[in-house]
Write a structure and sequence with these properties.
Length: 549
């Protein structure tokens, strides 16, 4: 280790909306055989690849809330896509623990944690945030970079915009729509083949972006001092993947490298939650894992592997205007899914996605079959499996043998030969719900009233500030769960934020850097300001701290 002692740096590199379609997952995940991802393949060769890693929700904001808290969304109220939740007072963002431990924490730049991001979360949350900006080169850092190029929306760009986004991709590594694999739950037609080819091209572009970040780490001589984690927030941006509590909705790539500590060129097949990386980072950095965290470390402080448990859990709830609820559990081999509303279609209207060509293609085929039926003709525009994707209803329970059926084509839930497996997984799911709770069973309007009794996001009460005779200042808060921070940056006028900016929940764009207080401040010849934040609330008003005389 460097002069920082035994505190490793942490570098997170995340992307949106992909399954493990990386070259290093060939033979593990169908479709990985056509991947062109040399940088991530090299990262996996230098670290540990997780072959059974799962998001806890098949959509970004609930998933990202779990990653940043180490808690299940259904337990802390961040399960509906999207919302502004007020988690229990003991819940904090992972980066806050690292800042309190002396780390320089940055986020570039996506948040979407289902709550207003407090000023205590990061030293810098911007499109220029980087570990290279830390004031002391010996200060350990926790730096996160979140790529958007694989987001589902990029698949459906018009031809000119897609050519621009993928301009650095050589023609000889572009994916041919005629040969790219298409899952059997999708129609094998030009629309889906083009979309799947574009998806793989975007993964190759993302891989190049990852390579540039890793090259910067190497240039700075920090490779051996840094834990690198690569992950996707959930599965691919296609029907029956993103937004579905399915294997394709939840299965994600996860790679961890820590030279000399974490095993190199290794693969783990134990089931892991993506949210397990929150307590993992704390444990690996030698910091205490808070008791309220519901997920478990995957490594210890020496980089030795630990299994989090026998099962991985997850679920889906409201997706914008699309109201539904499902819970799922996975062991090494089987996935069990329980639907709260079997009377509802798995393919409900979803305004954001309806504009995508793949969604329109399926909608068109549903209509084509209705017209065929009207004419008394055989229906042949969808296969039986594809009709299950678009059906008016779904079974109350589903069970799949992923080892032999990775595309989840044969539902075993009613097969007597698998009754024991189904019952075992159903019991495990019930035990998990009993352990962590399930706010998905609470009416959302009731939750909102409990969080926002006056109809607006609450504001944290101002902190206590008491000047001492020696010029030092005592800081505190009477609000349970609140952190107090201070800054020497004077207040500035902040323009009113638009709807989309408020939905994302990014920190207030005032250019001020807030430092988490440890209870007191030494005397200073300059002015300072204090503010309190309780997670899920807006920050308090500023309390002015005059210069010591």
């Amino acid at each position: 280790m460097s002069a920082r002692g035994d505190r490793p740096n942490i570098l997170w590199i995340s992307t949106h909306d992909i399954n493990p379609e990386l070259g290093c997952y060939r033979g593990v995940w169908p479709g990985a055989e056509v991947a062109v991802t040399p940088n991530l393949d090299a990262l996996a060769a230098e670290g540990t690849r997780f072959d059974n890693a799962f998001a806890v929700a098949p959509v970004c904001a609930p998933s990202r809330s779990s990653i940043m808290t180490g808690c299940f969304p259904t337990s802390i109220g961040t399960h509906n896509m999207r919302s502004k939740a007020v988690p229990p007072p003991e819940v904090r963002l992972l980066s806050e623990y690292f800042r309190q431990a002396g780390y320089y924490a940055t986020n570039n730049v996506f948040t979407d944690f289902q709550l207003p991001v407090p000023g205590t979360a990061f030293d810098d949350c911007s499109s220029t945030a980087h570990w290279r900006n830390r004031p002391d080169p010996d200060q350990p850092f926790f730096a996160s970079f979140h790529g958007m190029v694989t987001h589902e929306s990029q698949i459906y760009l018009d031809d000119d915009d897609f050519a621009r986004v993928t301009s650095e991709l050589p023609d000889d590594v572009r994916h041919d729509p005629e040969t790219v694999p298409v899952p059997p739950y999708h129609p094998d037609d030009e629309v889906f083949r083009t979309a799947w080819a574009r998806y793989h091209d975007l993964i190759s572009i993302m891989d190049a972006w990852v390579g540039r970040i890793l090259a910067e780490l190497a240039e700075d001589g920090l490779e051996r001092d840094t834990i690198v984690v690569f992950w996707s927030d959930h599965g691919a941006g296609f029907p029956r993947a993103k937004r579905w509590a399915t294997e394709a909705g939840l299965r994600i790539p996860l790679i961890v490298r820590w030279p000399g500590r974490v095993a190199a060129d290794a693969a783990r097949d134990d089931v892991a939650h993506l949210a397990d990386i929150a307590p993992s980072m704390l444990r690996m950095a030698g910091l205490e894992v808070p008791e309220h965290m519901q997920t478990a470390p995957l490594f210890d402080s020496e980089g030795i592997a630990h299994e989090q448990g026998e099962y991985a859990f997850g679920g889906r709830d409201r997706m914008d205007e699309q109201r539904d609820s499902s819970r799922t559990v996975r062991n090494r081999r089987f996935r069990y899914v329980r639907h709260a509303h079997p009377d509802r279609s798995p393919f409900q209207h979803q305004q954001f996605a309806e504009k995508f060509s793949t969604w329109r293609d399926l909608r068109g085929r549903i209509n084509d079959e209705a017209r065929q039926r009207a004419a008394g003709d055989p229906e042949d525009r969808l296969t039986p499996l594809q009709r299950r994707v678009t059906a008016e209803h779904k079974p109350a329970e589903e069970l799949y043998d992923i080892a032999t059926d990775p595309y989840e084509t044969v539902d075993l839930a009613t097969d007597p030969q698998f009754r024991e497996v189904r019952d075992q997984l159903a019991t495990a799911l019930d035990a998990w719900i009993a352990r962590v709770g399930d706010l998905g069973t609470v009416d959302e309007e009731e939750l909102i009233r409990s969080w926002r009794p006056e109809g607006i996001v609450p504001t944290t009460p101002a902190p206590r500030v008491r000047a001492r005779a020696d010029g030092s200042v005592e800081l505190g808060s009477d609000t349970e769960g609140a952190l107090v921070a201070w800054t020497s940056d004077p207040p500035v006028a902040v323009p009113e934020r638009g709807l989309q900016d408020r939905i994302g929940g990014n920190p207030e764009p005032d250019g001020r850097t807030w430092h988490i207080a440890d209870g007191e401040l030494p005397a200073s010849g300059g002015e300072r300001w204090a503010r309190a934040w309780r997670l899920g609330h807006h920050g308090s008003t500023d309390v002015h701290i005059p210069a010591a005389i």
